[in-house]
């Protein structure tokens, strides 16, 4: 049995899946299998994968059911003791699985493991993720997952791993959520078990600026997801502040999108003492000015200045 099962959901990523798969096949650590679930792609994604002859790759098909269903399906087929997740448009550096193995060996009883990562904003601007905690050069326990994730999240799905047993014990990804399903699982685990962070950057998350504003139906689901922990928030200040920052981003996005009712509903769930002065000011700005600021974001990114409109 392989140590790792690499879980890749695949939906209309024909342009990216070759680079993704090559980044996995080029890993220094070789004890792994690759489980790909084609979630009803309408492009050539599946055909591209079928062109590979590697016996490490196992391709399964399902009708389009969403990323949570595809990941859960892949886990069901996985034979490895540990699951390492990767989206089909993200990339691993050659040391990725080796670093995850180091973290697992150092902290075998932890619930969730994540490597450091970088964010590709537009192919010319690539920046390291920014975290709200100090770390050295070795894998470490993150004492407060929510506080550490106030900027970028410590656990990004394409840099994350956990045991198959832990995944199943926590019920896997919630298929009722069409967005935020991975973060939902990480939160549930972080509330119960230790989180381990490896400081070496081993993954590149490809973020598209044009995709930064979610569709209306997804924003509604995200509102539901962010309010699923209200009982726990009442006694966990770090979780409350962490979710309030997520709500801030949602309130701003929906205001820019013209979803004024959802924006107001979201703002009503925020404890504004958890926001910075800049964030409060942005929420008070006229919608037209916010749209203008959002329009210039690609320009400032192209000039190596990332306007963190939705963050602190």
TrEMBL record:
One Pfam family of this chain: Glycos_transf_2
Alphabetized UniProt keyword annotations: Transferase
InterPro entries in UniProt: Glyco_trans_2-like, Nucleotide-diphossugar_trans
Domain of life of the native organism: Bacteria
A GO term for molecular function: hexosyltransferase activity
Keyword hit for Transferase: yes
Keyword Lyase applies: no
Residue ranges of every copy of the Glycosyltransferase 2-like domain listed in the record: 5-133
Protein name: Glycosyl transferase family 2
Record organism: Winogradskyella arenosi
């Amino acid at each position: 049995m392989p140590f790792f099962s690499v879980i890749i959901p695949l939906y209309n990523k024909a342009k990216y899946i070759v680079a993704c798969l090559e980044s996995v096949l080029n890993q220094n650590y070789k004890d792994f299998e690759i489980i790909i679930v084609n979630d009803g792609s309408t492009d050539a994604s599946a055909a591209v994968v079928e062109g590979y002859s590697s016996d490490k790759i196992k391709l399964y098909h399902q009708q389009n059911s969403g990323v949570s269903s595809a990941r859960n399906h892949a886990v069901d087929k996985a034979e490895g003791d540990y699951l390492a997740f990767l989206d089909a448009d993200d990339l691993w550096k050659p040391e990725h699985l080796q670093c995850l193995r180091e973290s697992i060996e150092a902290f075998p009883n932890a619930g969730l493991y994540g490597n450091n990562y970088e964010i590709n904003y537009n192919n010319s601007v690539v920046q390291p993720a920014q975290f709200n905690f100090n770390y050295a050069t070795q894998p470490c326990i993150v004492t407060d997952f929510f506080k550490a994730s106030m900027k970028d999240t410590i656990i990004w799905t394409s840099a994350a791993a956990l045991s198959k047993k832990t995944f199943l014990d926590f019920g896997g990804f919630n298929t009722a959520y069409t967005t935020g399903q991975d973060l939902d699982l990480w939160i549930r685990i972080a509330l119960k078990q230790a989180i381990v962070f490896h400081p070496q950057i081993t993954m590149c998350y490809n973020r598209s600026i044009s995709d930064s504003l979610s569709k209306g139906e997804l924003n509604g689901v995200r509102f539901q997801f962010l309010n699923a922990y209200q009982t726990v928030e009442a006694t966990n200040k770090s979780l409350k502040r962490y979710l309030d920052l997520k709500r801030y981003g949602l309130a701003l996005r929906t205001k820019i999108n013209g979803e004024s009712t959802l924006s107001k509903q979201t703002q009503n769930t925020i404890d504004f003492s958890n926001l910075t002065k800049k964030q409060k000011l942005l929420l008070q700005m006229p919608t037209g000015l916010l749209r203008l600021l959002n329009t210039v974001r690609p320009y400032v990114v192209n000039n190596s200045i990332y306007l963190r409109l939705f963050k602190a």
